[in-house]
Design goal:
mainly alpha, single chain
Length: 95
């Protein structure tokens, strides 16, 4: 699409400075997004994370050690997406 060539040191230096400033300005936004967590319900996990049937999701969330929390007096559990992601990473089958 674009073919940008830098023929002199000044142009190259400008691009390096601009790129570094852009990265420095975006770092707080990236860090904030990385630290963000969402609390979701079982249906959300089923449809958006595991992409499985309701019965399969029920078996997964009832697996010993699956991360869940009970908020208030609710009968249903809630789930931290970060904790679920970590659980998935730690429960992979390896040969």
């Amino acid at each position: 699409m674009f073919n940008i060539e830098f023929n002199d040191q000044a142009s190259k230096s400008f691009l390096e400075t601009f790129t570094q400033q852009l990265l420095d300005s975006m770092k707080p936004l990236i860090d904030k997004q990385r630290d963000h967590d969402e609390i979701v319900n079982q249906t959300y996990l089923q449809k958006n994370v595991f992409h499985c049937r309701a019965e399969t999701m029920a078996a997964i969330v009832n697996t010993a050690g699956f991360p869940r929390m009970q908020l208030g007096d609710k009968e249903n559990y809630s789930y931290s997406l970060k904790a679920v992601d970590e659980w998935v990473k730690n429960n992979q089958l390896r040969n």
